[in-house]
Backbone:
């Protein structure tokens, strides 16, 4: 804690007794004397009011109990990146454990240095670091320019989740000193993103994995910043209240994994805006309230041109209750793995068997490999379960006479194919 306030105190992220907040006000709050900080808590249950006191509104909160007034000396404004790193990975500066000293010639004088060898060893340890985790280390800013690059130039993977970073500009000041940066986790830092100022060229030139869960980023901000992520392969945007507002153009074209889970504003129409990312192999859209999906460019039994590279789809904890959803997934040309647990549709005992039968190319379901004999049994059981309905709809064992109606084909688009393949198996 410090009695000295930062110049840019408004908007700063702070920690008070283990709770995180954002400073919204700095000044006097009569009739009580002295300086106060008005903070909006991340946890609204922690506060007492909406930013007002005795009829005067000092700042605004999104929640009626999201605000509090606290004294500056009770607030932790955080530390710079290198200070936190040394505290996390290296002993504090000072004499070494054995109190050893050595001589060092400075000009014509010889001076005694206590712990000189130990300091050199610590510096060497910092320079050797490649993967670091500074989760909840109160990092709030980059610190003096150039010091990070000098002390630890070989860092590749950085976990800065749940710290006190308040702006993307501060993230840039850190990242531009880490030339080998490949993975960056900024989850649970409430960040302000730029409205127009571009990121300096080359800052994130090697970044492949970026985690921005619970940072408050919008989709427009993602696209605005994405131009500086030229080789990004994995992007995690969980729990940001994101709404996909426009199609990525000339950005995110190398992305293989996208996590949009727990963003309830996203619907099937918005998913169409990201459907032509050419290399997207994994899409995580759990807990967004999804109930339906449709690929309008593909008819019954055809493959869609949308999501051309998608191999793994996660739709856990949604509102999927109709088999038409699963029928549509069979249109995906590259889909091999599906996770769809905790949906109304999957509560039945035979749900997994039906999913296997309905999606012909599926190799993994809910993280379990589908063995050949399992697929064979599921498809035979599916055929038996709906055989009478198929006949009533116009189906016939003779392929030349089989004319099931459109309603049946819409509900069971693979049934005819299963009949033909089973007939071939029986014939052989």
Residues:
């Amino acid at each position: 804690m410090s009695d000295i306030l930062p110049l840019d105190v408004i908007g700063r992220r702070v920690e008070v007794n283990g709770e995180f907040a954002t400073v919204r006000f700095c000044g006097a709050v009569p009739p009580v004397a002295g300086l106060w900080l008005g903070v909006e808590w991340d946890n609204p249950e922690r506060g007492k009011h909406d930013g007002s006191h005795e009829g005067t509104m000092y700042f605004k909160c999104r929640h009626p109990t999201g605000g509090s007034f606290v004294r500056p000396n009770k607030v932790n404004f955080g530390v710079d990146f290198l200070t936190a790193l040394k505290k996390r990975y290296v002993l504090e500066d000072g004499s070494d454990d054995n109190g050893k000293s050595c001589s060092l010639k400075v000009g014509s004088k010889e001076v005694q240095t206590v712990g000189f060898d130990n300091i050199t060893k610590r510096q060497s340890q910092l320079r050797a670091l490649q993967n670091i985790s500074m989760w909840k280390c109160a990092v709030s800013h980059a610190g003096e320019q150039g010091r990070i690059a000098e002390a630890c130039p070989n860092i590749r993977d950085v976990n800065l989740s749940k710290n006190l970073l308040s702006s993307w500009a501060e993230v840039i000041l850190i990242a531009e000193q880490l030339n080998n940066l490949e993975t960056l986790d900024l989850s649970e830092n409430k960040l302000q993103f730029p409205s127009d100022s571009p990121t300096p060229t080359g800052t994130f030139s090697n970044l492949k994995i970026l985690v921005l869960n619970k940072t408050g980023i919008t989709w427009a901000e993602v696209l605005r910043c994405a131009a500086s992520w030229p080789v990004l392969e994995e992007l995690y945007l969980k729990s940001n209240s994101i709404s996909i507002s426009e199609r990525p153009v000339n950005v995110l074209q190398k992305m293989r994994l996208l996590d949009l889970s727990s963003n309830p504003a996203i619907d099937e129409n918005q998913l169409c805006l990201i459907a032509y990312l050419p290399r997207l192999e994994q899409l995580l859209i759990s807990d967004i309230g999804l109930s339906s999906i449709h690929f309008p460019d593909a008819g019954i039994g055809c493959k869609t041109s949308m999501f051309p590279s998608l191999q793994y789809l996660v739709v856990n904890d949604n509102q999927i209750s109709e088999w038409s959803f699963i029928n549509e997934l069979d249109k995906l040309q590259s889909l091999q793995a599906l996770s769809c647990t905790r949906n109304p549709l999957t509560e039945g005992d035979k749900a997994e068997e039906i999913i296997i039968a309905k999606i012909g190319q599926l190799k993994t379901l809910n993280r379990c490999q589908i063995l050949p004999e399992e697929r064979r049994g599921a498809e035979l059981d599916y055929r038996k379960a709906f055989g009478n309905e198929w006949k009533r709809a116009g189906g016939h064992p003779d392929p030349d006479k089989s004319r099931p109606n459109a309603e049946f084909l819409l509900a069971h688009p693979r049934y005819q194919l299963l009949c033909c393949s089973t007939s071939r198996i029986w014939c052989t």
